[in-house]
Structure formats: C-alpha cells, structure tokens
Amino acid sequence: MELLVASAIGIMTAGGLYLVLRLRTFPVILGMSLLTYAVNVFLFASGRLTIGAPPILRDGVEIYTDPLPQALVLTAIVISFGMTAVVVMISLGAFLGSDDDHVDDLLEEEVTSAEGTP
Amino acid sequence: MTHWIIAPIILPALLAPFIVLAARYHIGIQRVFSVVGVLALVAISASLASQVSDGSVLLYQLGDWAAPFGIVVVGDRLSTMMVLLTCVLALFVLLYAIGSGWDNRGRHFHALFQFQLMGILGAFLTGDLFNLFVFFEVLLIASYGLMIHAGGNARLKAGVQYVLFNLIGSTLFLFALGSIYAETGTLNMADLAERVQLIGPEETVGIRVAAVLLLLVFAIKAALVPLHFWLPSSYAEAPAPVAALFAIMTKVGAYSIIRVYTMIFPPDLEVTSGLHDLWLLPAALVSLAIGMIGVLAAKKLDRLVAFSIIGSMGMVLTSIALFTPEGIAAALYYIVHSTLAGATLFLISDLVRTGRDNLDLTPQPPVKGTAITAGLFFAGAIAMAGLPPLSGFLGKLLVLDASYGTDLMVWIWFVVLVSSLISILGFARAGSVIFWKAHSVEGPEDTEHLTTPTTMSYCAVGGLLALLAAHTVFAGQVHGYTTTMAGQLFAPDTYVATVTQTPGKLSKPTKEDH
Description:
The complex is a heterodimer. Chain A is mostly helical. In chain A, helix 2 packs antiparallel against helix 3 (67-98). Chain A has one domain (2-115): Helix Hairpins (Orthogonal Bundle), CATH 1.10.287. Helix content of chain A is 69%, strand content 0%. Chain A is elongated. By secondary structure, chain B is mostly helical. Chain B has 20 helices and two strands. In chain B, strands 1-2 form a two-stranded antiparallel sheet. In chain B, helix 2 (27-52) runs parallel beside helix 4 (109-125) and helix 9 (231-237) crosses helix 13. The longest helix of chain B has 32 residues, at 153-184. The chains are: A mainly alpha, B mainly alpha. At the A-B interface, helix 2 and helix 3 of A face helix 5 and helix 6 of B.
C-alpha cells in the first residue's frame, strides 16, 4: 500500500515535471494537471494511510482515519480544477491571438526566422 | 472579541459579486462602490492598526471554533501595518485607474480589483498556513484576470507565463503543507510554533524539507533570484494600475517569510539553521545586483521599473535574511518605501505611455505633458534609486546599519552601494533619453491621437509621492514603530498564547492523536 501510493506520487511528479519542461502550452498544462494529481495524493497520504476506517472522531470508535487531509484535498482539488480551467482559457487566447504556443519568449532571430517560414 | 478584524476580508468579498451582479453595465456605479469600499477599508485598517499599536493581538475565531481546530484571523502590529499599506496603495491605484480610464478598457476591472484586495488582505491577516495558501490562490486568480485586463497578444502571452509559473508555485506550496501536516499534525501557525520545537533532533528530515519548500514558495512570490523569471514580462505587460497594485504582491512573499521564519522556524531553531545565512542572504544579494543591472540594461521603461522592483525586493530580503530585530525593522521600513516607490514608477511609466507611442528608451519627440511627468519621474527615480532626500536613502542607511558587524558585512555593503550606483545610472539614462533628448529629435507631426494625462492621474501619482515624502519626514516615528514590531515578532509568546488559549468551541483539552 505505502509502496504503491509513494511510487504513484513519484511517477506522476516525474511525468508532470517532464511535461512542464516541454515549453509548449498543451504539454505544460497536461504536466500541471499531473503535478496537481500528485500533490493531491500526497496531501491525502499526509494523514497516514488507513484502510477501511471512517473519518470520524467519537467515543467508541477505535480505528479512524484523519479527516483533516481529506478536507484539505477537497479544497486543493477545487482550486486546482479552477486554475486549470483559467490557464486553458488564457493560453487558448494567447495561441489564437499570436498563432504560437510557445510558453517562453523567443529570441529575436527566432521570431524573424519563424515569420519567414510559411 | 472584535469582529472588525474580519471586515477587511468580508467587505471586498461582498462588494465584488455585488459589482458583477448588480452594476455590470454601469461603470459609474462600479466606480462609486469601488472607491467607497476602498475608503472604508482604509478607515477600518487604520483603526485596526491603532488598536494593536500597544502590542496587543486581535483574534477572530471563525464560527467560534477554538484555535487548532478552527480557522483564525489574527491581527498584530505587522499584519495590520501591511493591511493599512495595501489599502492606502489600493486607494491611489484605483483613483489612477479611474482617472486614466484603464478600468473601462475591459470588463470587470472593479470586481477583480476587490477580489484581489480580498486575497491580499486575507493573506496578511490569516493565522493558518492552509488559509494562507487559499488566500494566495484568491489573490492569484484575481491577478490573472487583472493581468490580462484589456487584452492584447503580448499581454496574453505574458499572462500565460505568469499563470503557469504561479501554478507551479502553488503546487510546491501544497507539497510543503502536506509535509508539515505529516510531521506535526497541525497547520495553525501558533500551534506549529509550539510543536516544531518539540520535534526530536533525529526526526527532522520531513520538517527540514518542508521548511525549504516553504521558503522556495515564498521566494517565488517575492521574486528572489533565481525564481524571479515570472516578474519582468508580466509586470511590464500588465496594465499600469494593475502593475502598481502588484507592487504589494511581492511584499506578500516577504511578509510570509518574516512571519513563518520568525514564528514557526525561528532563527535559533537548529532544524533550519543555515537556511537564512547560507541560502537566503546570498540569493538576496544576487537579486539586488541583477535587479539593478536590469535597470541599466532595460530597453523599455516598463521593464526598467519591473527590474527595479526585483532589485528593491533584493534589498528587502537582504535585510530580512539577517534575521536580527534591527534587520527586520529596517526591512519593514524599506517594504513600505519600496511598495510606494514601485507603484509610483509604474503609474509614471503609464503617464509617459499616454503621451508617447511606446515606452522604448530611444529618443523620440517630446512626451505630451512633459513638464509635470518629467518632474514626477525625477522624484520617483530618486526615491527608487535611494538618493537623498527621499525615503529610499534612509531605508538603505537602515539596512546598511543593521548589517554592520555581521559576518557578511563587507559583501552586503559592497553589493548595496555598487548596485545603488548602477541603478542611479540606469534611471538617469532612462530619464535623459525620454525627457531631454526628445527635444533634439524631429518627429512625425501626427500626434493628435496622443493625449495629455488627466488631472486625476496626476493627483494619484502626486498622492503616492506625497506619501513617500511623509514616509521620509516621519522616518523616525515609522522606524520606531517597525522596531517595536520586530520586537513583537521575535517574542511571539503573546501571539501564540492569544491564539492557542482563547476559549471557543472544542477548547476543552482533548487527547490529541499526535
């Protein structure tokens, strides 16, 4: 269980970072989503992994899981979902406006050579 | 328990949807509500600041839940001063946006402006790390909208970079919060201050990772080199009033560093030793140098101002990284100065843009309204470069004085003095190219589309400069106050006790699972 969750977080983070470094908006946004998945699972695991236990604290319940990380993850999911929607809209606007989906600023000679080729 | 402490968050949070829903098509009504709201915020924050000036700590428990379980809003000297600074800055920026017509060049400026204020003020007032994250996101998502206000390809492109960089920062923030929660079982700042001390020396791996990650996140916000790459193009491309408001956003990062690394990870804590002097201080000195070299190298006026913001953040962080009461007091004095000076310069660059086709630093025909604009630029540049008589000079002296006798004193003095010289050269070059060489150039005659900035724009910029002058004249009092503020930061017992011991629901001692 621990190995599974830990390796899932690791693989998603690695994949996300690789995609973020591609410097074109579509892979970068995909990479950002992978990173947010990774961080959500990480937050979830920060309250220790307990299987089949309710997130309730009350008398008589001996085994329970920490409810706070679940609330944190919920907030984080909502925020990252909204942010992804915003970044998709803004990058779509930027792409449609300039017909170029590079994230970084091109050097001046690259701009002129890109304009030269049809 | 006073309820007023929550008002700086609630008021803009209510005004913004009202402006969107009820006054959607009426720019006049939007302007009235926005200005009245900001005026009320200034009044509230001034009264809050005077309430805590005796060293007391204001606490508001949301839903009356006691501290480690519920969410708290806390006001001490530092946070109320930052709130007051934000509100005053917002007032002048708003007046400029209205006077120059920027708010009418796209939609929903005023609603986004209020949401932005809500995020910034919330970040200053919250007493909980997770809520700091939430308010960071609120201020960021509003800033995304403001940043691309009025559209344009260059602006959208810079906006994409800005959004992506900050999204990565937010992800890092969540990783840091997860590690902190896994190690301590709490995210309340006052509770963390107590629990981090209890971690045994052999179990510090997780908390050290978390401390470094948090510092990285705040350094991204504060535009510390090498994490500053988002700042120059986004500040330069953003509409000028928005860029002026953003001058406070880098200070949110500086504020968070001060708050977290004096209270949760204080400088004498063994876990995080070496973080300030080994990493933060050299990086801050490099940002100071790179920012001021950027001022000299910039080809456009708005980029020049953006780099001067990086440089002044380098100065602030140099002073913070000393982590002595004198250093923090000097940094707080400089934070006020650098916010006002940065905002003034961004607004002045827009005054220049109003009377000129572009902001390129090449000789072109005179700017419309040259006389006043040039005078304002002269004063703003003096303030930012740190020449007497304005407050930049005093702030710099305080930083130099605070670093006197430390191990890295030679380096700090060298970098601060040389970079000041470079920035003076940079500003002098920019001013002479734009305002003096203009008269030697024959230009095209079709300048009808260029206008003189309105009186209200000039009033807003003049108001900010008057504040800078007041910051200079009352430097003694202000520095005295920041010194008491630093004293409060380095003795956080009152803060911690107020937060953890104020009774509320669930405050009966229960057996905790950690």
